[in-house]
Amino acid sequence: MSKITIKTILEKKKKKEKITALTAYDYSFATILDEAGVDIVLVGDSLGMVVLGYSTTLPVSMEDMIRHTRAVSKGVSTSLIVADMPFLSFQTGEEKGIENAGRLLQNGAEAVKLEGGSSVEPLVRKLVNFGIPVMGHLGLTPQAIHAFGGYKIQGKSEEAAKLLLKEAKLLESAGCFSIVLECVPKNLAEEITENLQIPTIGIGAGEKCDGQILVLYDCLGLTPDFNPKFAKKFADLRELSLKGVRQYIQEVKSGEFPDEAHSF
Ligand code: KIV
């Protein structure tokens, strides 16, 4: 398979080919996603919740993102690698945002994703002008979780829907190459998708988006206690892992392991 680039992603929308995206945080899973042929690997700041055990994404630092982006980049050769700009890595000034985006690119990312609409538009323009591709993120933006008062569907009222459409167009005009739409009604996601030249990547936003993304740990059934409606479990790795670990414990205790085949 040939390398997926920003151009490939834009062409997929024109050809009406669905775009596939999943998150990854480490080398081993990154190799699986790449080998399976996923278009976009997102080093999401969801790593704070599914890998580091925080209750929100807010404590994730640039150092966390750099470490995990570097690990993922070692396992990917074909997929496009996008890395999240974590909370406070861009909100406190454009210069800081540009520097932090650049650090992610220096560590293996090929594009960055940042949450927000009109508030980030000037920064998006600057990043794109400096050659740093940007993926937007609208709807339920988890870094604003306290402002939303919880993980709730966004854009439900007519006014909120109009604002989301306006912000999506603004991000497109600022140069984003795609926009994640998280937890928005599917009709609104469809309207936004039809009104943009760049692809929309949905998560809890219905089937009319140009592509779909899920948090890998939700997709593979590894998250113990967070199961949003949109997160279909495509495998149950938690159950499989529990089974394997329990068998290991039992075989060590009984003396069955290590046997001749696993000894020198
Ligand atoms: O951090 C993340 O995993 C994300 C996806 C949910 C889009 O932003």
Please describe the structure with a list of short key phrases separated by commas or semicolons.
alpha/beta; 11 helices; 42% helix
In words, what does this structure look like?
The protein has two domains: 6-233, Alpha-Beta Barrel (TIM Barrel), CATH 3.20.20.60; 237-264. By secondary structure, it is an alpha/beta fold. The mean pLDDT is 97. The protein has helices at 6-14, 27-36, 47-50, 62-75, 94-106, 121-129, 145-148, 158-174, 186-194, 216-219, 237-254, and strands at residues 19-23, 40-43, 80-84, 111-115, 134-139, 178-182, 200-203, 211-214. It is built from eleven helices and eight strands. The longest helix is centred in the C-terminal third of the chain and has 18 residues, at 237-254. Bound molecules: 3-methyl-2-oxobutanoic acid (KIV). Residues 23, 42, 44-46, 84, 180, 182, 203, 213, 215 line the site of 3-methyl-2-oxobutanoic acid.
